[in-house]
């Protein structure tokens, strides 16, 4: 859920900047379903698969070393590998965030959108760009 919170914050910042920067520009509004992007985007799925592989790799390494380590050494090794996993996870989340932001910027310019909002926060109207984002993230 931290990933979702992080992405929500990133999008909020991007959208706020777009809103403030776009006040004098076109009145067109784009909407995006972030949950759909996170579940259907091939690029996001690829990052998730890479993260799963890394997690399994580190877990297997820990299991392999378990028999030859004392309890204290095992604990240290576990903490070290967990820190390594979290670092990789943060790097991948940063790459996903950057990719989505770049894609949103491009689509906003292409479609002349003054602001992009979350779809669940818009009762009616706006141009849904969710599928455009998913397609461009491939």
From TrEMBL:
One of its GO terms (biological process) is protein stabilization. The keyword Phosphoprotein does not apply. One of its GO terms (cellular component) is cytosol. Residues 1-21 form the signal peptide. Keywords: Signal. It holds the Pfam family OmpH. SMART domains: OmpH. GO terms for molecular function: unfolded protein binding. InterPro entries: Chaperone_Skp (IPR005632), Skp_dom_sf (IPR024930). Belongs to the Skp family. This is Outer membrane chaperone Skp (OmpH).
């Amino acid at each position: 859920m931290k990933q979702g919170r992080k992405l929500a914050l990133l999008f909020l910042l991007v959208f706020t900047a777009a809103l403030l920067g776009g006040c004098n520009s076109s009145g067109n509004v784009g909407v995006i379903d972030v949950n759909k992007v996170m579940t259907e985007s091939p690029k996001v799925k690829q990052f998730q698969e890479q993260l799963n592989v890394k997690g399994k790799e580190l877990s297997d390494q820990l299991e392999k070393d378990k028999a030859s380590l004392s309890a204290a050494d095992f604990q240290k090794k576990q903490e070290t590998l967990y820190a390594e996993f979290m670092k990789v996870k943060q790097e991948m989340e940063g790459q996903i965030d950057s990719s989505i932001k770049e894609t949103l910027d491009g689509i906003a310019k292409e479609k002349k959108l003054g602001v992009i909002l979350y779809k669940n926060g818009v009762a009616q109207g706006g141009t849904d760009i969710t599928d455009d984002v998913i397609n461009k993230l491939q």
